[in-house]
């Protein structure tokens, strides 16, 4: 990495957790000795010019998708930037928006960057939403985002919907909640976490640090 300051953009679309995500990214950069400037913005030009972009989200898939569409040019800017190779990280509903569609309240198109759809979790006998800490299951060394995580790494989850019909090549980590639930996904330069990295303490900060160091292939190529 060069000594130039990285511009990290947290996308503002009234999707929630913006300030928390920005603070966590600032902390992760400082802890790792990475010179980074973290900003929150809905400006499409800022999205296109950023070195890395982060899309947080909480609430319903349809509401978050509508929030993106309510800002003229914002969705197109995200697509343009990531098509050009800008590393992208989606958090919670931000990750879910990477899928082909969501089924919460209505059938709502996602970005279509990863296979599958966001559907209600089927976990008989367990409470929904899944809320709290849960262990991440992943193959050490299989993806740069999990570098340095130990086998007992936990993330903080809050969700009732999850990715289904995904493909193994895009699945970096799962968690167990009535069966395997996708927890981290990635394809090319686009990645996402179902859990809240900004609330996952040491594990979340490590994943964010890994994201800030990540030099992925462009979408469609190997991560």
Automatic annotation (TrEMBL):
Principal subcellular localization: cytoplasm
Query: EC number(s) in its UniProt entry?
Result: 4.3.2.10, 3.5.1.2
Which InterPro entries does the entry mention? Class_I_gatase-like, GATASE, Imidazole-glycPsynth_HisH
User: What GO MF terms are annotated?
Assistant: glutaminase activity; imidazoleglycerol-phosphate synthase activity; lyase activity
Keyword hit for tRNA-binding: no
Pathway(s) the chain acts in: Amino-acid biosynthesis; L-histidine biosynthesis; L-histidine from 5-phospho-alpha-D-ribose 1-diphosphate: step 5/9
Q: Which sites are catalytic? A: 92 (nucleophile), 196, 198
- GO terms for cellular component: cytoplasm
**Keywords noted in UniProt:** Amino-acid biosynthesis, Cytoplasm, Glutamine amidotransferase, Histidine biosynthesis, Hydrolase, Lyase
Q: Which reaction is catalysed here?
A: L-glutamine + H2O = L-glutamate + NH4(+); 5-[(5-phospho-1-deoxy-D-ribulos-1-ylimino)methylamino]-1-(5-phospho-beta-D-ribosyl)imidazole-4-carboxamide + L-glutamine = D-erythro-1-(imidazol-4-yl)glycerol 3-phosphate + 5-amino-1-(5-phospho-beta-D-ribosyl)imidazole-4-carboxamide + L-glutamate + H(+)
Task: List the subcellular locations.
Answer: Cytoplasm
Residue intervals of the Glutamine amidotransferase domain: 20-212
Would you kindly state one Gene Ontology biological process term found in this protein's UniProt entry?
L-histidine biosynthetic process
Q: Which CDD domains did the record assign?
A: GATase1_IGP_Synthase (cd01748)
- Please describe the quaternary structure of this protein: Heterodimer of HisH and HisF.
Q: What does this protein do?
A: IGPS catalyzes the conversion of PRFAR and glutamine to IGP, AICAR and glutamate. The HisH subunit catalyzes the hydrolysis of glutamine to glutamate and ammonia as part of the synthesis of IGP and AICAR. The resulting ammonia molecule is channeled to the active site of HisF.
- HAMAP family xrefs: HisH
Indicate what this protein is called per its UniProt record: Imidazole glycerol phosphate synthase subunit HisH
The coding gene here is hisH
């Amino acid at each position: 990495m060069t000594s130039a300051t990285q511009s990290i953009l947290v996308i503002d679309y009234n999707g929630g957790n913006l300030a928390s995500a920005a603070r966590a990214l600032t902390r992760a950069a400082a802890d790792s000795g990475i010179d980074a400037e973290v900003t929150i913005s809905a400006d499409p030009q800022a999205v296109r010019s950023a070195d890395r972009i982060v899309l947080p989200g909480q609430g319903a898939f349809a509401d978050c998708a509508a929030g993106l569409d309510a800002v003229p040019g914002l969705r197109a800017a995200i697509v343009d930037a990531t098509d050009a190779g800008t590393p992208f990280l989606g958090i919670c509903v931000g990750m879910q928006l990477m899928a082909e569609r969501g089924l919460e309240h209505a059938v709502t198109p996602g970005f279509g960057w990863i296979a599958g759809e966001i559907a209600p979790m089927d976990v008989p006998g367990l409470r929904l939403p899944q809320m709290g800490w849960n262990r991440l299951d992943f193959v050490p060394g299989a993806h740069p985002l999990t570098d340095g995580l130990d086998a007992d790494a936990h993330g903080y989850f809050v969700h009732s919907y999850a990715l289904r019909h995904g493909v193994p090549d895009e699945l970096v980590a799962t968690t167990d909640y009535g069966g395997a639930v996708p927890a981290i996904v990635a394809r090319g330069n686009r990645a996402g976490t179902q859990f809240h990295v900004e609330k996952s303490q040491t594990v979340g900060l490590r994943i964010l640090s890994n994201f800030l160091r990540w030099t992925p292939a462009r979408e469609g190529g190997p991560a």
